[in-house]
């Protein structure tokens, strides 16, 4: 073909001239304009939808006074994600239609659905189904402090496909919903503030326990978040070569760390005022040599 075109350039020229360049440029210009207009339209629809979602949830929260802010944030997050996914689908459908790609015919084509499932649509379906179970079973909400396998942090967003966890080191982790199999939610109304006071083997344990009880009697009545009497477990082996006086204080999930920090400080100050010396570091009991 190329040798024929080289011998007879008129063939190539006739082929190029057969294109209706003015019509092609005309169609391309209108297609670009249509794409810009449809994109602006969907952008406006997205903004309006976000405003409507925020107002609807604002009114819903006012009427349903029992719903927590975390739950409201979770429902708003999942609704916004669903709305955005639907908009993206119809935007892509409109763009392909403007270009001239018969989307409907492609979707109805034989084997296309099977190919799509084979390329990962099945995993996407699992993500969506798992996301709905997490939402409706109230397993986690936006703002909860959770442990997901090796990730520890605060839930920042729950989507149809993935859940975002803001780690304790401020990293943002995207976890596909289908991989969320074991959730340790540390923000479900009731927790125990665990306090360990490390002691020496020859420390006056009973005196330390009496000091803890005295501090509790003076401070628990006016401390916010404590919902039950402390559980003083006595002396325990922490398993790392140290012994400690352990106590659990039942409290609300939002006040756990405040209670833990406050009472540990109060215990240590009272024990120091009593003249009792506590170990500075882990106490490793040496193995006697024979």
UniProtKB/TrEMBL annotation:
InterPro entries linked: LSM_dom_sf (IPR010920), MS_channel_1st (IPR049142), MscS_beta-dom_sf (IPR023408), MscS_channel_2nd (IPR006685), MscS_channel_C_sf (IPR011066), MscS_channel_TM-2 (IPR011014), YbiO_bact (IPR045276)
Pfam families found in the cross-reference section: MS_channel_1st, MS_channel_2nd
Transmembrane segments annotated in the record for this chain: 28-53
SUPFAM superfamilies referenced in this protein's UniProt entry, alphabetically: Mechanosensitive channel protein MscS (YggB), C-terminal domain (SSF82689), Mechanosensitive channel protein MscS (YggB), transmembrane region (SSF82861), Sm-like ribonucleoproteins (SSF50182)
A single MF term (Gene Ontology): mechanosensitive monoatomic ion channel activity
Domain Mechanosensitive ion channel transmembrane helices 2/3 positions: 84-122
GO cellular component: plasma membrane
Superkingdom, taxonomy of origin: Bacteria
UniProtKB keywords: Cell membrane, Membrane, Transmembrane, Transmembrane helix
Ranges of residues in domain Mechanosensitive ion channel MscS: 125-188
Protein name: Putative mechanosensitive ion chanel
Species of the source: Apilactobacillus kunkeei
Lineage of the species this protein comes from: Bacteria, Bacillati, Bacillota, Bacilli, Lactobacillales
């Amino acid at each position: 073909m190329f040798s024929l075109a080289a011998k007879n350039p008129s063939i190539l020229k006739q082929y190029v001239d057969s294109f209706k360049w003015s019509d092609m440029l005309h169609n391309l210009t209108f297609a670009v304009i249509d794409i810009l207009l449809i994109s602006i339209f969907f952008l406006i629809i997205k903004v309006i939808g976000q405003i409507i979602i925020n107002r609807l949830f604002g009114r819903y929260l006012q009427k349903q006074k029992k719903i927590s802010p975390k739950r409201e944030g979770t429902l708003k997050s999942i609704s916004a994600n669903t709305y955005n996914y639907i908009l993206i689908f119809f935007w892509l459908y409109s763009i392909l239609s403007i270009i001239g790609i018969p989307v409907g015919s492609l979707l109805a084509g034989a084997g296309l659905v099977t190919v799509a499932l084979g390329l990962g649509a099945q995993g996407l379906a699992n993500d969506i189904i798992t996301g709905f179970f997490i939402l409706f079973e109230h397993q986690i909400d936006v703002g909860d402090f959770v442990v997901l396998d090796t990730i520890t942090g605060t839930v920042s967003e729950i989507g149809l496909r993935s859940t975002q966890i803001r780690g304790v080191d401020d990293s943002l982790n995207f976890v596909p919903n289908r991989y969320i199999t074991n959730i340790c939610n540390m923000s479900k109304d009731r927790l125990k503030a665990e306090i360990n006071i490390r002691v020496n083997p020859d420390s006056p344990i009973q005196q330390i326990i009496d000091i803890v009880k005295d501090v509790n009697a003076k401070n628990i009545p006016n401390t916010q978040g404590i919902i039950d009497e402390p559980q003083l477990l006595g002396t325990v082996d922490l398993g790392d070569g140290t012994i400690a006086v352990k106590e659990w204080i039942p409290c609300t999930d939002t006040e756990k760390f405040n209670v833990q920090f406050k009472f540990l400080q109060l215990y240590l100050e009272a024990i120091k005022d009593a003249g009792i010396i506590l170990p500075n570091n882990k106490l490793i009991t040496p193995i006697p040599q024979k």
